[in-house]
Structure formats: C-alpha cells, structure tokens
Design a protein that fits this description.
two-stranded antiparallel sheet, 10 strands
Amino acid sequence: MTISNRVIRRGLAVTLVLGGIAVADDARELTWDDLIPDSRMIEQPGDDSFDGAFSLPTLPTGVVEELDGVLVKIPGFIVPLDISTEGKVSEFLLVPYFGACIHFPPPPANQIVYVTAEEPLDLESTWEPIWATGELKTEFRESDLAYSGYTMAVQATEKYEY
C-alpha cells in the first residue's frame, strides 16, 4: 500500500495545527494590563492651576519580570516590520490596538511585544486581531517604529474571535 505525498502533507498539517492548539491550551492567557507592573509608575507633577481634573494620568513603565520565560497567549494587532514579496511576515510588533506604532506617539514599551516567527505568517490583514502564543521574554528591543519591552518567538497564532 502506497501513501501519497498529498496524504502525508495533510497529516503533517493537521499535526502542526493540533500541536499549535495544544500549545495554546497550555499557555497562560494574558491581557495587556498584565504587562504593566504595579509598582513602577511615573508620577506626573501637579499643576496648581487645576484641581487635578485635567492632570495627566500616570504613565506605566518597566516590565513584569515574573513573566520572563512564561508560555503566554495574548491578543493583539500585527504591525509588520518586514514583509516578503509573497506577503509573509516573520517579524512584527504585537500591539493592543489598531494603528498603534503607525501613529505617534507609540504605546509605552511594556505595551508592545516584538515577535519573531520561525515559520512566516500570511499577512492577510492587519485590520484583524490575532492570538499569539509563545514564550514571553522581558527583553528590550528597538525597531524603526517603536521600542518594545517584551519579545516572543511565536509558536502558534490564530484569529481572534470577538
């Protein structure tokens, strides 16, 4: 009995998809607030001419060191850093809202994850949010668009359903 290459490829694809689902199931699901440390806030100087109603909010800085090396799953939008001629992306910024990093100022570094994908992703639309799953690292990275406080080698992605 001979097994065709097509059957082998389909079996491999199913294995990879199911493997990605298993990785995602084991991951700690995060929100963007989880990336902001509680104890590291910059206080804005008070302005005596206002009663505080118009004062600037505190700005979060730093990263949550306890997340270093943790397998996480986080939703966000892709801001591509390099796009191949085939429309595939292997490096991108994952950001909490559409348009971040394209319009200035970008979010704080702890609200941006610098993501690398060993297997490039099809860039169908940057309008659609995704779930990204991988090991989160508390590493500072600089790109042409923004600074990021976290990095991730993505292991699985999936469409984010509202």
